[in-house]
Specification:
7-stranded antiparallel sheet, 12-stranded antiparallel sheet, globular, alpha+beta, single chain
Length: 822
């Protein structure tokens, strides 16, 4: 779960108290039943799981039916096939988790319900206690566990709830530390425990529970201290708290407020969860949530698809399931946007079962988020969404889920997911729809300064920042060494599926992240977090339907005078990495070619075909290098021979070094190999150029060193440009007005020109997101327009054809046209 750092309070126009009761949940046959079929509500419907089960639980009436539905999401339902090996294993896991959760539970203690949760200054201890109660209650409620229906455990859990209400949580207790725990984390867990234990609670205890939750979270339109209504994931979490609390209280009026809280009921667009944040508050940099390019921002300027974004999708899918087929079903037409969230906001950011770390915020510094855990949350959410999008979308989501589950051989989704998701996923896997196959695409996210490049044998992500996007997030004493996460970090995903798991983030050298250009040395913990760059240029252009893209950033480093220009030209299986203008007034600057956690500590490194030493502690200055190949990773070609420095090392660290909130002091050790270019002390105009060939063999790397598939055309402070030899494709990033052979730009722009027989396809953008228009001139005669995007026009020029694109309000998006030779 993610924790917001914002402090919330109520506006005087939104009373904190219970308020008028505006209607109980319908239970009679004269009104639409709350268990109406999913097909009846179209896009508002979600997976129609079977009713839940538990000891002596009722299943009639409106409120009871909704409790059954939520109960099923928590337990998988009463009709679990205990003869199914996977379900039996999941039931066993549930029982073991319950044993662990209940360990040490002692309501007779005076200092804490659990011996390790006795503090009264850290709010996450309150949430943790309620989560343990809910986990133990799940074991009690799932048929087949050793705890199922156990009266002693039931009474112990009820006493535990009483202890928490008397000593930690409710109107009599003042909140402290992080408001997220009071308003969201603790409330969600207490709600779940209450649904599971409902028939044993009694009226008095139930009233105390619901009053306690409402004390902290009275309304889905909860206001923050900065007078802004909670947005993004926080808004969906809060809505879920209020919805389940309303079900427990049989209050239909609050469900109306929940339904409306997900939509733009006031017509401003600022507070709608379902609408894209491309207008209103987003234009001022305050929009939290999804954007139409697939970006998800939380805390205003932090890329967070793999953190808050996945939690929003997960919570929303549960909430939609709860309300489907009822009088409170979400029928907002913007609900259709959820399809694009999945297709554009998650699919391109999931690589081999892992969510790209560049969009996971401070969650990368949590040991509990290793091992593809974040991707599992996305898969579970999409499984829940499939029945709500019938037809082509359901088939596409089914194919997608099948692919995600099949290709993640590192983490067996069906062996770790919860019971309800397992039952639903098995149905999906049994369908006749084939798996999608590996993603092959190039996707850019101009609203959050990120790019993703997928080929059959690898995936690669580039992380930048600008005046629009923070460099990294470090709050609540987490992610303390994230200094360079957006200084051009390159994340390479190969068949080593556990590379970014197994203690990568505490052990990797955070001052030498791959792809970055940095000043040597280590800043203070959390230095520069939540800081935007002073440069506007970050972004690029991509040719739709291909894996061809130009991406770049103007680097202005935090805390030093380091500046530079960096480009990545993603041309199918080759990434041309270019840098120029690297300058610093003092200190030593470096550009990191690679920094890889080795699956095999003795992985072979070839330097111009000669094996380097494999022992720990090897280091060397490598002169006049033309090519390098690292076993299990790929090749690197230097068309202009380069001087590299190499290092093999065993790196030891503890998670607590990067996260004092959730990290442990236990040291872990992992092997690494690092290659970098040393630009020297106080560099002035330094640069670099190499071709990265992920997953390429040593032989292919050697051959490409002899005949490079990509040529460098320009690497100045005006323009970076390369040309692919095979077809003459020209890719250029213009930092200012300039010329790259036959292509001229009137100012900052990213441009691709691809000849293909008698046609020429052009893609261009304004990566600064400040220009009203971009004009480029192509010095080729006899070209006529076949097709062009809206806002793109052409005119004859003495040397060829002039192309002008209206880039105002496009937020860095790519525009294109196709020309034909006469």
């Amino acid at each position: 779960m993610n924790h917001t750092e914002h402090t919330h309070h109520r506006d005087s126009t939104h009373p904190v108290g219970p308020g008028p009761r505006t209607g109980a949940l319908p239970g009679g046959a004269s009104r639409r039943t709350v268990l109406a079929g999913a097909a009846a509500v179209g896009a508002g419907a979600v997976l129609p799981l079977a009713p839940g089960a538990g000891p002596a639980r009722a299943a009639t009436g409106g409120a009871a039916a909704l409790r059954e539905r939520w109960h099923t999401l928590l337990t998988g339902g009463p009709d679990l096939d205990q003869g199914d090996q996977r379900i039996a294993a999941a039931v066993e896991r549930t029982g073991k988790a319950a044993v662990t959760a209940a360990k040490g539970l002692d309501p007779t203690r005076t200092d804490g319900l659990f011996p390790d949760l006795t503090g009264t200054t850290l709010s996450n201890q309150v949430t943790t206690a309620f989560k343990r109660l809910a986990t133990a209650a799940t074991g009690w409620a799932v048929p087949g566990t050793p705890q199922y229906g156990d009266t002693a455990l039931r009474d112990l859990l009820l006493a535990g709830v009483d202890w928490m209400l008397a000593n930690r949580y409710g109107p009599a207790h003042t909140r402290y530390d992080n408001d997220w725990d009071w308003e969201i984390g603790s409330a969600l867990a207490l709600n779940d425990a209450s649904v599971l234990l409902y028939d044993a609670l009694g009226a008095d205890r139930l009233a105390r529970i619901t009053a306690a939750v409402r004390h902290y979270t009275p309304d889905p339109n909860l206001w923050r201290a900065d007078r802004q209504i909670a947005t993004g994931a926080n808004r969906v979490w809060i809505s879920t708290v209020v919805a389940v609390n309303a079900v427990l209280r049989d209050d239909g009026g609050d469900l109306v407020r929940v339904r409306d809280a997900l939509s733009d009921v006031e017509g401003s667009g600022a507070n709608s969860v379902l609408a894209f944040n491309d207008v209103s508050a987003a234009a001022e940099g305050t929009g939290e949530g999804f954007y139409s390019d697939g970006s998800f921002l939380q805390h205003y300027k932090h890329p967070y698809n793999g953190g808050y974004g996945k939690e929003l999708l997960s919570s929303l899918s549960r909430l939609l399931h709860l309300l489907a087929g009822t009088d409170w079903a979400v029928t907002d037409p913007d609900l259709d946007n959820v399809r694009r969230w999945v297709d554009e906001g998650f699919d391109p950011l999931i690589a081999r079962g892992d969510v790209m770390a560049s969009v996971c915020g401070r969650e990368i510094a949590r040991p509990s988020k290793q091992g593809h855990v974040s991707a599992q949350t996305v898969v579970e959410a999409v499984v829940r969404l499939i029945p709500g999008f019938p037809g082509e979308t359901a088939d596409r989501f089914t194919a997608l889920v099948k692919q995600w589950i099949a290709e993640d051989t590192y983490r067996d989704f069906l062996g770790v997911t919860d019971l309800a998701s397992l039952v639903a996923a098995q149905q999906v896997m049994a369908s006749a729809v084939p798996a999608r196959g590996r993603l092959v695409a190039h996707q850019q996210y101009p609203r959050m300064d990120k790019a993703a490049h997928h080929r059959p044998s690898f995936a690669l992500g580039v992380s930048a920042c600008s005046t629009r996007i923070y460099n990294y997030e470090s709050i609540q004493n987490e992610n303390l060494h994230g200094w360079h996460l957006s200084d051009g970090m390159v994340l390479l995903y190969t068949d080593d599926l556990g590379h970014y798991s197994e203690d990568y983030w505490p052990t990797v050298d955070p001052a030498r992240l791959p792809g970055t250009t940095v000043m040597a040395g280590r800043p203070a913990d959390a230095a520069g977090q939540r800081t935007t760059s002073t440069a506007d240029w970050a972004g690029g252009a991509g040719l739709p339907g291909t894996t061809l893209g130009a991406y770049g950033m103007e680097l202005r480093a935090y805390g030093s005078t380091l500046t530079g220009l960096k480009s990545w030209f993603c041309l199918d299986d080759v990434i041309a990495c270019t840098g120029s203008g690297i300058t610093a007034g003092a200190g030593r600057a470096e550009t990191v070619v690679e920094n890889r956690k080795l699956r095999d500590a003795g992985a072979a490194l070839l330097v111009d075909g000669v094996p380097a030493a494999t022992g720990t502690g090897w280091s060397a200055d490598l002169d006049e290098v033309r090519w390098v190949h690292l076993e299990g990773t790929g090749g690197y070609v230097f068309p202009v021979p380069a001087t590299l420095r190499g290092l093999r090392e065993e790196r030891t660290a503890a998670w607590r070094e990067i996260n004092t909130k959730y990290g442990t002091d236990t040291p872990v050790t992992r092997p690494y190999l690092t290659l970098w270019q040393d630009h020297g002390e106080a560099p002035d105009g330094a640069g670099y150029f190499w071709l990265q060939a992920p997953a390429a063999s040593a032989e292919r790397t050697r051959l490409w060193s002899q005949a490079p598939p990509v040529e460098l055309i320009a690497a100045t402070t005006a323009v970076h440009a390369v040309r692919r030899v095979a077809d003459g494709l020209l890719a250029a990033n213009f930092w200012t007005a300039g010329t790259a052979q036959e292509l001229t730009s009137d100012g900052p722009a990213s441009v691709l020109v691809r000849p293909d027989g008698k046609t020429v396809t052009i893609a261009l953008s304004d990566p600064t997101q400040l220009r009203a228009s971009v004009t480029v001139t192509l010095a080729q005669r006899g070209l006529t327009v076949v097709s062009a995007d809206s806002g793109v026009s052409t005119a004859p020029a003495p040397e060829g054809i002039r192309i002008t694109a209206d880039t105002s309000g496009r937020h860095g998006a790519t525009l294109g046209l196709t020309l034909k030779r006469s």
